[in-house]
Amino acid sequence: MKFTKFIFSTLNLSREYLESIFSLASKIEQNPENYLNKCNGKILAILFFEPSTRTMLSFESAMLRLGGSILGFASGKTSSSAKGETIADTLRMINGYADIAVIRHYLEGVGEIAKKYSSIPVISGGTGTQAHPTQAMLDLYTIKKAFGKIDGLKIALMGDLKYGRTIPSLLYGLAKYDDVTLYLISPKELKIRSHVRQRLNGFNLKFYEIDDISQIIDELDVLYVTRIQKERFPDQLDYERLKSSYKISPETLNNVKDSFILLHPLPRVDEITPEVDSLPCAKYFEQAKNGVFVRMALILNLLGVE
Ligand code: NCD
Questions:
Q1: Residue nearest to atom 11 of ligand 1 (CA)
Q2: What pLDDT does residue 85 have?
Q3: What domains are there in the chain, each with its CATH number?
Q4: Considering only CA atoms, which residue is closest to atom 3 of ligand 1?
Q5: 165 pLDDT higher than 80
Q6: Where is the Aspartate/ornithine carbamoyltransferase carbamoyl-P binding domain positioned along the sequence (predicted)?
Q7: Which atom from ligand 1 is nearest to the alpha carbon of 165?
Q8: How far apart are CA 147 and CA 59, in angstroms?
Q9: pLDDT of 64-84, one tens digit each?
């Protein structure tokens, strides 16, 4: 297995690397008892400058399930960044306190700072508005688990494709697979950014930008819904206008294929109605659980533990 030290994007991860993480995550999922002591004596630092539930708790759960320990903070307000400390200094200091770190931050470019200043492995837990690589990895793992493959699937991504950072990471991950057809569904104001579109044009996949899901819902294998990212809108009036653009209810899903699955990185606001939760295609809570296995596999990989 190839070991890596920093995970800040899915762009530079090879299909082979992704597959090796998924295969380890699957082994962990099947026999978690074999991994209970793999990280004895190791410490994971949680450096979260933005709110989080799943990413933070699943990283914590992952390290604890490997026998390691955790330390850190869940808000920039309670760390020295509130006094003006730079990320570079925080990271350099954490190098003496922990063996591996996960960082969530609103700034793009945190990865470059980590690569420059950190001697311990660092993983993005969501950085800026364009990167959430471990979310993309657990999304891909969930798709692979459901279909046994990713090649050849028809996948729609819907919602806030502009500000949602899970979107570019997932798109670049999907681009590593063959013959994937993508439908990008959003209000025109929330389409993918032009640099993301340019990159997609250079990949071996077909993608269509549309605004109505009813045209394609019966062909889809996967629908990935995201929330409209209130906190990232420069103008809250735009958010108010666009916030209820889409709603998935059982009626929307009347004609889906038997094997169809519905995913969401969560948190959801009102874009999937609660009545959908009991349908067999609703996989978003299982998706969140898969995050623990994928993050366990990543921690092992970055710490170089066989
Ligand atoms: C995402 C994030 O923080 O970007 N959350 C997550 O990690 N599942 C998605 C979101 O906040 O909408």
A1: 267
A2: 84
A3: 6-131+289-303 (3.40.50.1370), 133-287 (3.40.50.1370)
A4: 126
A5: yes
A6: 7-144
A7: 4
A8: 26
A9: 999 999 999 998 787 777 777
